Amino acid sequence: MFFPVALSLGLLGSFHCVGMCGPIALALPLNKKNYLTMTTGGLAYNLGRVFTYSLIGLVFGLIGQGLFIAGYQNFLSVILGVFLLVSLIVGTLALRSKTNSYAFRIVNGIKARFIPLFQKKSTGALFLIGSLNGLLPCGFVYLGLAGAMALGDAFKGSMFMVGFGLGTIPAMLAVNLLGGIIGTKLRNSIRKLSPVVIGLMAVILILRGLNLGIPYLSPELKEQKIEVVLENGEKNESTLIVPECCSKPKKKNEVKIDP
Question: What is the model's pTM?
Fold first, then answer.
């Protein structure tokens, strides 16, 4: 279920990616005399980004898994929302101030690694360019990582970011192959909407974590007792934490585990 969501998020953020990473994609040392070779090179670059996203997603999923096991689901949701809001504010202020901040020095350091790779035209070099590109700060990548972390599972977190990365490939590959197919005016308009989408998702995450009892938006989590019947007939009582809309029964639920 999470994979289609990740793909949709990637598709939604792909125009933002075109605006942010478009100059790098357009400057790639692709062999434009051979369409097949150019396509292979473009795919290598984009798969490099997906590879980096998958590794970062694995790390964030592992962190989320630890917090879920410890029972900090609500805390995690609030922290993710606050992180997204802070990244938006800091990113906006940094762009407006145009100062050579620590963040800009990191970004410039990553970009400096691109230069030797641009002098090569091998598929491996294009893959490495994409891998480094995946480390550049991006609001939609942060949103994807928030989703990966919220899954509370290392493997699912990694796969969520794979889906996110794959969702960005069509638009990015179009830039590689067709250059300015996406108009600058449309691209800029979508880029302006990106902070709004990220901010809205951040607020939703915070509300969900605050446990306010608002149906669907911020449901109150309650404990629900269940009985687990083992294959030997032994019964164990367990506790589930579920939204108020889903916690019901007046009598205990019984879950049977078949051999």
Answer: 0.70
**Average pLDDT estimate for 146-150:** 87
DSSP designation for 31: -
Beta-sheet strand order (sheet of 221-229): 235-243, 221-229, 253-256
Give the Cα separation of 164 and 51 in Å (integer). Answer: 11
Contact 134, 56 (CB under 8 A): yes
* pLDDT value at residue 249: 46
* Two tokens, residue 95: 């762009």
> How far is 201 from 203, CA to CA, in rounded Å?
5
- Residue 259 DSSP SS3: coil
Burial class (CB in 10 A: 0-12, 13-18, 19+), 173: middle
What are 60-108's pLDDT values in tens digits? 999 888 877 666 777 778 888 888 888 778 766 665 665 555 556 666 6
Q: Where are the domains of the chain?
A: 2-210, 221-256
CA–chain centroid gap for 168, Å, is: 11
CA 46 to chain CA centroid, Å, is 16
Q: Read off the tokens for 145.
A: 């990582």
Closest CA to 83 of 150, 151, 2, 173: 150
Q: Which two tokens stand for residue 33?
A: 């005399």
Strand bridging mode 235-243 / 221-229:
antiparallel
